[in-house]
Amino acid sequence: MxxxxxxxxxxxxxxxxxxxxxxxxTDISTSKSNLKPDENRAVLIVYRKWVPxxxxxxxxxxxxxxxxxxxxxxxxMVYLEPGVHKVKISWxxxxxxxxxxxxxxxQVNKYYFLEFxxxxxxxxxxASVYSSYEFNFSDNLVYFDDIKDCCGYVK
Length: 155
Prior knowledge:
The chain has helices at residues 2-14, 143-150; strands at residues 42-48, 58-62, 65-70, 74-80, 83-90, 100-106, 111-123, 128-138, 152-153.
């Protein structure tokens, strides 16, 4: 029974390893998904690489409003007014994974990148498996290449 439980937990963490159809790699700099910051707004690009459990998309809420759903290896973009914003990433109930929230501050005429990352961890003699998650928030344009190499655009 213990082996069956470990197998079930491992399946829930890893899930399917095929890339979702909605997440084909996209050249972020030339695609119609490319929003441009202007003198009134910034652009926030939220992306998710390989973050278990893979079978579930995460939902991004910006300032309490559901903005988009991200399968793994995907990104989406949104305009933001300057100021402080709350970004919350939540999982479906069956993922048995807690939500995570971050406060970000934006300025006009800039790109901001928010990577939702994570890893699988094992601990103890009994091989307890769990996942940990973190945010990486930056305005460094080098992240365009990171997104170009991994992710496809979703609306």
